[in-house]
Write a structure and sequence with these properties.
The protein has about 475 residues and is α/β, with parallel strands linked by helices. It has two domains: about 280 residues, Glycogen Phosphorylase B (Rossmann fold), CATH 3.40.50; about 170 residues, Rossmann fold. The chain has 17 helices and 17 strands.
Length: about 475
């Protein structure tokens, strides 16, 4: 089967899908990604084929000016937003963002990242098979679970359930306003229903009363966030929790030239000295107060008994205070390599970073960068499971950060709980076994294959099966001879 991945153009989104693509490849399927040029090297470094798409409905979240959004005037922000909105709104109305993928690339099944869910209506029109990849926690409205925009921690009581109901009412009213005003076309119920009707999709097949992206009741939703990190919630028939195993040796596509020497010197003098790592992810420039927050993190390390590595991404280094000797400020670092030697991560609350921390037994201080996505809800789950603390990116001071860092580093219960959650993650069903139920036309061949035997025997060698390598400059050719020119 020819399986194509269309992922939101951010490295963190891609990273979460690589284990799925690898498992499908080991099962004998042909796997390829489609996306914009700037992410090609990152994908091909993992050994997967990549098809370049001419443009994308979403701007590349990482291709921003070095100065970051905080140095852009309000007027420039509004002008840029209006320009993008006017361009994108036409694409939404025509539901045409995936037309190039549908008409140019032959595939049997499309693994579609959830930000593109609205455009899956066009896949229904053309009777293309697809599944939604959800990197967030499940987005459906479930009794006793607040929306992902809230840091509220449910308690399983009648009153707690009513609080969750109230939080959902507030969120859905906000969603209605953004859709009705045209600020978020994908929230506009009239546009969704009108487009669904044109595409031949029944309203009963859609789930609109949910968080963020619309859902499809007749298509599988592959949730890659760890099930064991969620709140208790009711199951839905089409939701599939994939047991993603984090690869601690994942190849990284880029990092600062001076990282290796600085990192090794910190680790070399580490006996008895904790290592703290801080990163606001690949889109840290978006978060209001990000520069001031990172400045406070750096200041909190002055005179403190720990080493600190700060990855600032596209933010302007000159806006930060001069780091003391125990602090390294870098533009980009190989995160998995740092986490292996880390005692604490300070993060914006992205689910991929949280998952990687749990997989490597690293406690977490979560300071949500925004309440508009899933970071607040992720932070609530970190506290609920006892693997870290909640902070506030805009309000934290040097002293409050120092107190919370010391609290986590000084309490081994956080790391112990991380290891217990990690054990639950590792005891989940094998990824290949779950996927075989949804890609069954090669199941018999897969069961007879070497990779299936390795899974059944529980051997770790399955991750070292040789991957195909491809010429980055050549066109993509599926095994049946169909070609896509890059």
């Amino acid at each position: 089967m020819k399986i194509l991945f269309k992922i939101y153009p951010q490295r963190s989104h891609y990273n979460g899908t690589f284990p799925i693509a690898g498992a499908l490849a080991r099962m004998g399927h042909e796997v390829a990604y489609v996306g914009i040029e700037s992410l090609r090297a990152h994908v091909e470094a993992q050994g997967f084929r990549y098809i370049v798409q001419d443009d994308d409905i979403y701007p590349h979240a990482e291709a921003q000016p070095l100065a970051g959004s905080e140095l852009t005037s309000f007027r420039d922000k509004v002008a840029a937003w209006m320009q993008f909105r006017n361009w994108a709104k036409a694409r939404w109305r025509r539901c045409s963002a995936l037309d190039e993928v549908i008409h140019r690339i032959p595939f049997d099944f499309l693994m579609l990242d959830s930000p593109y869910s609205f455009f899956a209506l066009a896949l229904c029109r053309d009777q293309k098979r697809f599944g939604i990849i959800e990197s967030m926690m499940p987005q459906d409205q479930s009794v006793g679970c607040p929306p992902l925009s809230s840091t509220y921690i449910p308690r399983g009581t009648w009153w707690s359930d009513r609080i969750c109901d109230g939080l959902w009412v507030r969120y859905l009213l906000k969603r209605w306003f953004l859709g009705a005003s045209g600020m978020r076309p994908d929230y506009d119920k009239r546009l969704i229903r009108r487009t669904a009707s044109k595409m031949g999709v029944s309203p009963s097949d859609l789930d609109i009363r949910r968080y963020f992206h619309i859902g499809f009741r007749n298509a599988p939703e592959f949730v890659i966030s760890p099930h064991c990190l969620d709140f208790p919630r009711a199951a839905t028939p089409n939701r599939v929790h994939l047991s993603i195993r984090v690869n601690p040796d994942r190849p990284e596509s880029q990092w600062d030239y001076g990282f290796t020497s600085r990192f090794e010197s910190m680790v070399a003098r580490r006996p008895g000295i904790p290592l703290v790592y801080c990163s606001l992810g690949t889109a840290g420039w978006r978060y209001k107060g990000a520069t001031g927050f990172l400045g406070n993190v750096i200041e909190s390390a002055k005179g403190s008994p720990w080493n600190l590595i700060v990855s600032i991404g596209n933010l302007d280094r000159s806006m930060l205070p001069s780091p003391p000797p125990n602090v390294a400020v870098l533009q980009s670092v190989p995160q998995m390599r740092v986490l292996k030697s880390c005692d604490l991560m300070i993060t914006h609350g992205g689910m991929n970073s949280i998952t990687e921390c749990v997989a490597l037994g690293v406690p977490i201080l979560v300071c949500p960068g925004t309440h508009q996505i899933d970071q607040a809800g992720n932070a609530a789950r970190v506290v609920y499971h006892g693997i870290g603390l909640l902070g506030n990116l805009r309000r934290e001071t040097t002293e409050s950060l120092k107190h919370k860092i010391s609290q986590i580093l000084g309490n081994p219960a956080f790391r112990d709980q991380c290891l217990r959650v990690k054990q639950r993650m590792d005891s989940s069903p094998e990824l290949e076994a779950i996927l075989s139920h949804y890609f069954g036309d090669t199941t018999e061949a897969y069961r007879a294959s070497e990779s299936a035997q390795l899974v059944q025997e529980g051997r770790k060698e399955r991750s070292s099966l040789p991957k195909k390598t491809f010429d980055a400059t050549s066109s993509l050719t599926w095994l049946d001879g169909s070609r896509v020119e890059n």
